[in-house]
Design goal:
The chain has 750 residues and is of the alpha+beta class. The chain is built from 25 helices and 20 strands. The strands form four sheets. A six-stranded antiparallel β-sheet has the order 2-1-6-5-4-3, with helices on both faces. Strands 8-7-11-10-9 form a five-stranded antiparallel β-sheet, with helices on both faces. Helix 13 packs antiparallel against helix 14, helix 14 packs across helix 15 and helix 23 packs antiparallel against helix 24.
Length: 750
């Protein structure tokens, strides 16, 4: 009775043993899936051991290295890395990783030929086995410019062992079959009355004793696993079921045992493969999802959460992949999905589409999809290329547009001209901003840029929608008009002139002036380039008529700005003119025109209209950079003066009025008599008046203090002969010293 029950129960448990055979197939599936992930990866991938020796590389490496790739296995990964200094650091990471991912950026890796280096961003992912030791790591590389396809892989099989049967009585073997002898490594003579627990691993004896007692009492029918030690000292795994029986008229235990060492190895590989798969899936650095034929997403990693804004709880087994796709791309993507299900040849596996984030924003996505062999499951990796697409769009825009105005650039304009055949009905308008260089030099590039922007807006409003409006040079614009006649082109030019006049009504401080020229192909069959030159010549003739009046206008604006910024008010210029006017009485000045000197006294600082107010009226000392900017006013003033017939004679003096007798002045650092006499006189007069006047950064000196300072600087800053003459002006009573300190608000720096 007991014996038959034992065999029935034993057969029942055999079904559980057979289950390992069926589950062994899962190892192959998991391994295939893990390898599939690596082969899917669109960049280089390696598996290396803890010593950094390469054990595996993916098809990306195979494609790049070709036949040379066979030499990689068994070699050190760091031998591929540059610079050399990074190799020790990588070796150390291999040896000391604690289960976290590390990223090594900007590692140069020789992947193609010894002469070619690819800049790769490597991510090192440690992989733990069942004991959580670090046996191998996966290295995933990112080569931004590459997107690689995916490839197939092969299946892996597994063995199935046999079953041993034994009877134990009084703790000793009484019966055993050949498999028991094989498992234990002991012959028949050795097995007779051999103690059962001598083959059980010491650490598992308590477990086996407890499980066996429970099973003999009928309290447990589930097989138990334990380790045993064979005659050779090798530790192996077994799974066992025992039932109570009567043997030789006495109670005994009938056991069914199977060596599952190979299955345990498979389980370990299964766990490690699953760890590999999950680790790569979770740490690939790109969003990944799995979905079936019904499009339902069964798995998503954390990068997908970041990319979409949805949590995995919201996505997995609840959302379909098309729920993320923008409506404009949906029909295309569904069509591809249907073709994949039908296993049609030539179905693309790489796509670009727009993904709708949970918050409603749109992201540009590059996606790679493949079917896992032997299944209906799709694996998709998604890379956010929004920044790349935006950069590409920006580069494309800048390739055809002017960065400042947003109009088309010269390259695009010439391409459009090349597309126009030599036929009637097209015209060209050329427009140039008058005096733009002088505006830039006088008032700064901010003012010049404002003029360019306004002219761009005027031309765009005046041209027809189909016309091509471009900035073709620094101050030059052009309009290409197709399908036009004389009346059309004249209407555009008239609109431009009216718009400039309207703008100037409200902008007296910085009015615009433009010169226009146009040419039309109706009367003569010009090619586009001849027509452009003709329009440019016509514009230049108009510009010659405008040039002097525009320069005079800009100088007048500068002179007005000079007064508004308080450089010539409150008597400063008048006092300088008074000193200059009296100097011929104490010093011979035959080389100087007195009227020009008086002009210099009034306009020597005209260049300060091009200097920022934050520098001119700063309370406190200037920084070195600010002082260098301040010194530019001499050169700016010279350029302004050269543009005006009235000021041109003193342009050179304006440039040199801050030079010093000892050569330490600016901007030319000339010294002594090489400095014009007018500048040497102005230097003394201007310095004296500045010292006896309040400034934002100091209080005024007394007359005696200022005169003493002038004398102290004789021979260094000032011409000593002129200093003596200047002192005589006061001694002779030709100039009356100012009574007490004189001040005025917001006086700029000298």
């Amino acid at each position: 009775m007991n014996r038959s029950v034992g065999f029935v129960n034993g057969n029942r448990e055999y079904s559980k043993l057979f289950k390992f055979t069926r589950e062994a197939g899962q190892v192959a599936e998991i391994k295939k899936l893990a390898h599939r992930i690596l082969e899917n990866f669109y960049g280089p991938a390696f598996i290396v051991n803890r010593n950094g020796v390469i054990e595996y590389y993916n098809n990306y490496i195979l494609r790049l290295m070709g036949k040379k790739s066979k030499d990689l296995v068994g070699g050190e990964f760091v031998s591929l890395c540059l610079p050399v200094e990074s190799q020790d650091e990588i070796k150390n990471i291999f040896a000391t990783m604690d289960g976290e991912s590390f990223t090594i950026s900007n590692v140069l890796c020789k992947l193609k030929t010894p002469e070619t280096e690819h800049l790769i961003n490597w991510q090192i992912i440690p992989l733990g086995d069942s004991l959580h030791s670090l046996d191998v790591v996966v290295l995933l590389g990112y080569n931004i410019e590459d997107y690689r396809p995916m490839h197939d892989f092969d299946s892996i099989g597994s063995p199935f062992p046999s079953t041993g049967i034994f009877i134990v009585q009084d703790g000793k073997f009484k019966f055993w079959n050949a498999h028991i002898s094989y498992y234990s490594g002991r012959g028949e003579a050795e097995m007779i009355d051999y103690e059962y627990f001598k083959i059980v691993h010491p650490e598992d004896k308590d477990l086996v004793r407890k499980q066996a007692i429970n099973m003999l009492k009928g309290a447990n029918q589930k097989p138990y696993e334990y380790r045993y030690i064979n005659k050779n000292g090798e530790t192996r795994w077994a799974i066992e079921v025992i039932v109570p029986v009567v043997y030789g008229g006495r109670r005994a235990a009938l056991g069914y045992v199977m060596d599952i060492t190979e299955q345990k190895k498979i389980q370990k590989e299964l766990q490690e493969s699953e760890n590999i798969y999950r680790t790569i899936f979770e740490n690939s650095g790109t969003a990944m999802v799995m979905f079936g034929e019904d499009s339902l997403i069964t798995m998503a990693n954390r990068e997908l959460e970041e990319l979409s804004g949805y949590s995995r709880l919201e996505v997995e087994n609840k959302m379909k992949w098309m729920d993320f796709i923008h409506k404009d791309d949906l029909a295309k993507m569904i069509g591809y999905h249907q073709l994949r299900m039908e296993e049609r040849a030539g179905v693309p596996r790489n796509y670009e589409f727009n993904l709708v984030h949970k918050n409603g924003t749109i992201r540009n996505i590059y996606m790679t999809v493949s079917i896992i062999p032997g299944t209906k499951t799709r694996l998709a990796s998604l890379m956010d290329v929004t920044s790349r697409k935006e950069a590409e769009d920006k580069l494309r825009f800048l390739g055809t547009h002017d960065k400042l105005t947003g109009l088309y650039n010269r390259t695009f304009f010439e391409e459009q001209m090349a597309n126009i055949q030599s036929v009637d009905g097209f015209g060209v308008i050329v427009c140039d901003i008058d005096g733009l260089k002088l505006v830039n030099d006088t008032f700064g590039h901010v003012a010049g840029d404002a003029a360019l922007l306004e002219v761009g807006r005027i031309l765009t409003r005046s041209a027809r929608e189909r016309d091509v409006v471009a900035r073709t040079g620094g101050d030059e614009f052009a309009i290409l008009l197709a399908g036009t006649g004389y009346a059309d082109i004249e209407a555009v030019c008239s609109s431009i002139r009216r718009s400039v006049d309207q703008y100037n009504v409200g902008h007296h401080e910085f009015p615009l002036s433009v010169s226009l020229g146009f040419a039309l192909s109706n009367d003569h069959k010009y090619n586009p380039y001849e027509l452009f030159k003709l329009a440019d010549d016509n514009m230049y003739r108009e510009k010659l008529l405008h040039s002097q009046s525009v320069r005079n206008s800009i100088v007048q604006i500068a002179m007005k700005a000079l007064g508004e910024r308080d450089f010539v008010t409150e008597g400063h210029a008048e006092r300088l003119r008074n000193i200059v006017d009296k100097m011929p009485l104490v010093y011979p000045m035959s080389e100087c025109n007195l009227s020009d000197m008086i002009l210099l006294a009034e306009f020597h600082d005209i260049g300060k209209v091009g200097i920022s107010d934050s520098i001119l009226f700063k309370k406190g000392p200037l920084t070195e950079e600010e002082y260098g900017e301040m010194q530019r006013h001499c050169e700016i003033g010279q350029r302004i003066a050269l543009s005006s017939p009235e000021l041109a004679p003193i342009a050179d003096w304006i440039l040199k009025h801050h030079e010093r007798w000892d050569g330490q002045g600016y901007p030319l650092k000339i010294k002594g008599d090489r400095i014009p006499l007018a500048c040497r006189i102005l230097a003394i007069a201007d310095s004296y008046d500045a010292m006896v006047s309040d400034r934002p950064y100091r209080k005024a000196m007394s007359h005696d203090q200022a005169l003493a300072e002038i004398v102290r600087c004789s021979g260094s800053q000032f011409d000593p002969d002129l200093v003596e003459a200047f002192v005589r002006l006061f001694e002779y009573g030709l100039i009356v010293p100012r009574a007490g300190p004189w001040s005025r608000p917001s006086v700029a720096r000298p």
